Amino acid sequence: MSKKKNRVITLPSLKRQEKPAMQQQSVLAPPPKKWDFSATDTTTANLVTPLRTKASLVAPRVFYAPTVLSAIYYLVDKCPQEIGWLGTVQVMGNDYYIDQIYVPQQIVSGTETDISPEAMAALAIEIMDAGKDPGALYYWGHSHVNMGVTPSGQDETQINMYLDNCPVFIRGIYNKSRKQKVDVFDTRAGMVFQNVNAGVHYPMNNETKARLDALITNNVKTRTYQTTTSWSKPDRDAQGNIIIPPVESCYSYNTIDDEYVFPRGIRIRSIDIPADKLLELDALLATKFNGYGGYRRNTGNYPSVGD
Predict the structure, then answer these.
(1) Can you tell me the distance from the alpha carbon of 150 to that of 213, in angstroms, rounded to the nearest whole number?
(2) In this structure, what DSSP letter does residue 273 have?
(3) How far apart are CA 276 and CA 288, in angstroms?
(4) pTM of the predicted model, to two decimals?
(5) In whole angstroms, what is the distance from residue 287 CA to residue 76 CA?
(6) Which domains are seen in the chain, by residue range?
(7) Alpha-carbon span 124 to 4, nearest angstrom
(8) Which residues face 64 on adjacent strands?
(9) Most C-beta atoms within 10 A of its C-beta, which of 31, 132, 248, 296?
(10) Pair 116, 104: CB distance under 8 Å
(11) 158: closest CA among 183, 128, 127?
(12) Using CA atoms, how far apart are residues 178 and 105, in angstroms rounded to an integer?
């Protein structure tokens, strides 16, 4: 039993009490110890390059298990006075997931929540007996009843106590109006992330993921496009001669490059087209472009499609 007691003696007592006219102070974590210094900043020139502090971190999000958020607001709605609870946390990449909350024994009033060291020790033992790590107990939530969710000076002092033993700690303040303020204190990054996005996370089992992946693979196709600006070389026969497409399929003449334009983006220069075919093409284009029959190919006056 001594092993369990050694694991819980460092847990501080949770006691919240409003103090009038108390100056609230920000809880400052230790400054970052790492620097962001890129090798590309070094040159052979005689320059002074400042060391930059670590790039700004992305604020984490806090997720609740569906039953956890329902339980939180049930406690807030049910209790006419303040009430506090703690929760175990899982790390999800850059985010945090509160999977379960516990309500230890406590003495409360309209502006005070007092959880004794003995109650905290009993809670830690309960968590260990359930096969969970009490080290995951780094979420503390409490109700402000009908007051706003701005932390009191005592709230800030309590967080300072927790940060002595927890590199990361999450605090949530809630009221009956469904307002919440969730802050993540990270001493490793030297940051306090305030009012982080917090919402319910609905876990998905692997079977459901596999079924959805199969639906995406089988039913969702990417539309492909063929642009009209891509030009193709004309087909050639076994002897390497250019195969002229049917004359009636020609739909334009490129005056700049002296080329006839056929479907599939095929462009053939007039020098590569037999003389009899050229005459047919000129007659065809003159007919297609009503009234342009008097213009010869070499005058460069045939309009393009759409003119």
Answers:
(1) 44
(2) S
(3) 19
(4) 0.55
(5) 84
(6) 2-18+57-202 (3.40.140.10), 226-307 (no CATH)
(7) 8
(8) 98, 200
(9) 132
(10) no
(11) 183
(12) 24
Round to whole Å and give the CA distance between 286 and 284: 5
Q: Which residue has the tokens 């400054």?
A: 31
Q: How far is CA 171 from CA 183, 206, 214, in A?
A: 5, 32, 40
Determine phi and psi for 107, rounding to 5 degrees: -110, 130
Report the alpha-carbon distance of residue 68 to residue 42 in Å, rounded: 51
Token pair of 158 as six digits = 């309590």
Phi-psi region of 45 (alpha: psi -120 to 50; beta: other; left: phi over 0): beta
**Sign of the four-CA dihedral 125, 127, 132, 136:** negative
Query: Which residue bears the tokens 């609870």?
Result: 85
Report the first-to-last Cα separation within the chain, whole angstroms: 93
Q: What are phi and psi of 182, to 5 degrees?
A: -115, 125
The closest of 133, 140, 193, 141 to 162, measured between CA atoms, is: 140
Question: Which pLDDT tens digit goes with each residue over 251-300?
Answer: 888 888 888 888 888 888 888 898 888 888 888 887 776 544 434 444 44
Adjacent-strand bridge partners of 259:
254, 269
Rounded to 5 degrees, φ, ψ at 252 are: -165, 165
* Among candidate residues 120, 99, 112, the one with its CA nearest the CA of residue 142: 112
User: 10 Å Cβ neighbour count for 237?
Assistant: 8
Distance CA 103, CA 86 (A): 7
> Rounded distance, CA 87 to CA 102, Å?
6
